[in-house]
Amino acid sequence: MKTKKILAGAVTLFAAVTLAACSNGSNKDIVTMKGNTINVSEFYDRVKTNQQAQQVLLSMVISDVFEQQYGKEVSSKDVDKAYDEMANRLGDSFAGALSSAGLTEETYKQQIRTNKLVEFAVKEAAEKELTDDAYKAAYDAYTPEVTAQIIKLADEAKANEVLAQAQAEGADFAQLAKDNSTDAETKANGGTVKFDSTSTTVPNEVKTAVFALNDGQVGASVVKSVNLSNYQVSYYVVKLNSKSEKAADWKEYKDILKDSFIKSKQADAAYVKNVISEAFKKANVKVKDQAFQSILSQYITTGDASSSSSSEASSSETSSSSETQESSSDK
């Protein structure tokens, strides 16, 4: 489902409430019954190894760290705009999507805000790497805008049938698109679309196929593409109408290349991880409860994660026990 992709990273409200309650740091009773009582400390010890609870803590740490370092860079208007855009995109299914992801309006807006703070940090880091050499490398890989026509189909056999018709002498590609394409955005205008190598309006497979054609040429074979958000397979019949001549000076495309470079870094999981790691290092993030070391170790070094344990080991056994209990209650 698209909503799973859109709301990726969401955690259940149960897990969120669990850590929020335990963060009070008290042994307040949660449930009493004949012969037994369950208090906050006992509950915390039981749920802290739960994967969802650990993910909540990671989200909390990322949110707090980036709020402190970049909070002024994202306004409430930015968050509200992104929220409204998603609500409009999903329409009547939006409320259900939030509910199934364990989110409320407030928690989803917080998630949006955190994502935007991280995006800004990645953008800032990427801009520092935009040297002339980086621009020139991006320019070498860049293909200027082309005008093409596409026919999108859901069935491969049907796509091959339409391809044969499109390759026939005197074929009316525009009419074939109007009669057969499942792409609502291009069908009415005969499948006409404009894009360059940085565009996201068409799949990468379609771009690659079109860029290899000559003006007026129809692709030799059907282009297969998989939408990774829902794993839906689509088949394309493509035609190149015209190419734009590439300017000799990369500076002609500076804004386009910059935007493309930044977006590529924001989509690079390893790069984003490094940015988060640097932010954690600057914030001096350390793990005080070893139950959470694994979930945070991807962003902080083992030394940072275990520094408190090493310090405790050098103290007396009594002092170590006392500090551990204090750490647990702080949660």
Automatic annotation (TrEMBL):
<feature type="signal peptide">
    <location>
        <begin position="1"/>
        <end position="20"/>
    </location>
</feature>
<dbReference type="Pfam" id="PF00639">
    <property type="entry name" value="Rotamase"/>
</dbReference>
<comment type="similarity">
    <text>Belongs to the PrsA family.</text>
</comment>
<feature type="domain" description="PpiC">
    <location>
        <begin position="143"/>
        <end position="242"/>
    </location>
</feature>
<dbReference type="GO" id="GO:0005886">
    <property type="term" value="C:plasma membrane"/>
</dbReference>
<dbReference type="GO" id="GO:0003755">
    <property type="term" value="F:peptidyl-prolyl cis-trans isomerase activity"/>
</dbReference>
<feature type="region of interest" description="Disordered">
    <location>
        <begin position="302"/>
        <end position="331"/>
    </location>
</feature>
<dbReference type="InterPro" id="IPR000297">
    <property type="entry name" value="PPIase_PpiC"/>
</dbReference>
<dbReference type="InterPro" id="IPR046357">
    <property type="entry name" value="PPIase_dom_sf"/>
</dbReference>
<keyword id="KW-1003">Cell membrane</keyword>
<comment type="function">
    <text>Plays a major role in protein secretion by helping the post-translocational extracellular folding of several secreted proteins.</text>
</comment>
<keyword id="KW-0472">Membrane</keyword>
<keyword id="KW-0732">Signal</keyword>
<protein>
    <recommendedName>
        <fullName>Foldase protein PrsA</fullName>
        <ecNumber>5.2.1.8</ecNumber>
    </recommendedName>
</protein>
<dbReference type="InterPro" id="IPR050245">
    <property type="entry name" value="PrsA_foldase"/>
</dbReference>
<dbReference type="InterPro" id="IPR027304">
    <property type="entry name" value="Trigger_fact/SurA_dom_sf"/>
</dbReference>
<keyword id="KW-0413">Isomerase</keyword>
<keyword id="KW-0449">Lipoprotein</keyword>
<dbReference type="GO" id="GO:0006457">
    <property type="term" value="P:protein folding"/>
</dbReference>
<keyword id="KW-0697">Rotamase</keyword>
<feature type="compositionally biased region" description="Low complexity">
    <location>
        <begin position="305"/>
        <end position="331"/>
    </location>
</feature>
<keyword id="KW-0564">Palmitate</keyword>
<dbReference type="InterPro" id="IPR023059">
    <property type="entry name" value="Foldase_PrsA"/>
</dbReference>
